[in-house]
Design goal:
By secondary structure, the chain is of the alpha/beta class. It is built from eleven helices and 14 strands. The protein folds into two domains: 128 residues, Response regulator (Rossmann fold); 172 residues, Response regulator (Rossmann fold, 3-Layer(aba) Sandwich).
Length: 387
């Protein structure tokens, strides 16, 4: 082999080695295929939207601070808020007169999106009927009225039960045997309370007589004060009222006489004069009506009349100097009204002309009680407007 051949062979071998080394240096180790990315987790379903609260409005005839009628209704409104929380939203308009203004206010409340509206005085009846007819999607509730519609119903409390229990105490506590009543407006509701107060008083003292002074309004403290003063000057030493302010009790306190609170506990307005307070608890009815509205079971066209039995009426804060036997009698009456074993309007009951209005052993029904237009025996004078 010539030198040239040897050099050629060595060059070939060297090139072969270099090529092999290059292949080894550039080669890659086989890698495992990357793991597939995990499938994205399914997103949780979006929470259902929170239902809008039921908007509820109240129209009040007086101020919420009247200490009586409107104060009691507003306590009922607050009971709603405590019961239902953010399921409802309440509002109110106070000092709404029983006039054309009532219709304007009720229309405005409906226009604001309120779906349940309570009108809390007798004089709102006709305005509410008109507004209800034009707002079929709104539910209307009218206190103390008697006219209904498909989307309007009425409710009331048996205030005469509280009046009767107050009368039981009044008959025992009077020294002059003359009782005085400051009366608001001569409608059956008020006449029924005057008569029931007198019947209660006669049950503990047959000698009593009742004088009445009308103020022709629900909330008018100056007129109520004037009327109370007139009754005291006429010999009354125990006063009762069917008006909304504590003016009667305040007057009795100032003049050293006794009196009752009405619709709410008025003890603080005349602690020395105060004998007891006949109160209304509107909360149970307002809660019932709202539950029905929320559940879609509310129905118009009906009437509810609740009393002691339903927890709507009570006589509270009886004075310490009321005799124990009289307090016990009040409790007996209360129990009897609750279980149905006692009826206030059970005959014989005569009017103050001597005519029998409820026959012996007969119990007057609600229709009779709803249309009273006479005074019972023992009440002086005539009902304004009666024949």
């Amino acid at each position: 082999m010539t030198d040239l051949q040897k050099r050629s062979l060595l060059r070939f071998a060297a090139l072969t080695a270099v090529a092999s080394a290059a292949l080894v240096g550039c080669g890659k180790k086989e890698e495992a295929a990357p793991a597939p990315s995990p499938a994205p987790l399914a997103s949780a379903p979006a929470p259902a939207p929170k239902p809008e609260p039921l908007n509820i409005a109240f129209a009040y005839v007086g101020p919420v601070g009247d200490g009586g009628w409107t104060f009691a209704h507003d306590n009922g409104r607050k009971a709603l808020e405590a019961e239902f929380g953010d399921k409802i939203k309440t509002s109110f308009v106070e000092n709404v007169p029983e006039s054309a203004d009532a219709e304007r206010v009720l229309r405005d409340l409906a226009g604001q999106g309120n779906k349940l509206i309570f009108g809390t005085t007798f004089g709102y009846m006709e305005p509410m009927l008109k507004v209800a007819a034009d707002n079929k999607g709104v539910k209307f509730e009218h206190a103390t009225g008697y006219k209904q519609a498909d989307n309007m119903r009425t409710y009331d409390s048996r205030t005469y039960e509280g009046a009767y229990m107050a009368g039981v105490i009044a008959g025992k506590m009077t020294k002059s045997n003359t009782l005085g009543v400051v009366a608001s407006i001569p409608i059956p509701e008020v006449i029924r309370n005057i008569n029931s107060f007198t019947l209660g008083a006669q049950s503990s003292n047959p000698k009593v007589k009742t004088k009445v002074v009308w103020v022709n309004g629900w909330f008018d403290p100056p007129k109520e004060t004037e009327a109370a003063t007139s009754l005291i000057n006429g010999g009354a030493d125990v006063l009762f009222q069917n008006t909304d302010s504590p003016a009667v009790l305040k007057t009795a306190e100032a003049k050293g006489k006794r009196a009752f609170g009405w619709d709410s506990d008025m003890t603080a307005y005349g602690p020395k004069a105060h004998l007891a307070s006949a109160v209304i608890n509107w909360g149970p009815y307002y809660i019932k009506a709202t539950k029905e509205a929320l559940a879609g079971t509310w129905a118009g066209g009906g009437h509810s009349w609740w009393g002691v039995k339903e927890g709507a009426i009570d006589l509270v804060s009886i004075a310490e100097d009321v005799p124990a036997e009289t307090k016990a009698r009040v409790q007996e009456v209360k129990k009897g009204l609750a279980d149905g074993s006692f009826a206030i309007w059970k005959g014989p009951i005569l009017d103050n002309t001597g005519k029998v209005q409820v026959a012996k052993d007969t119990v007057a029904d609600d229709k009779f009680l709803s249309g009273l237009s006479f005074f019972v025996k023992g009440v002086e004078g005539k009902v304004p407007g009666s024949k």
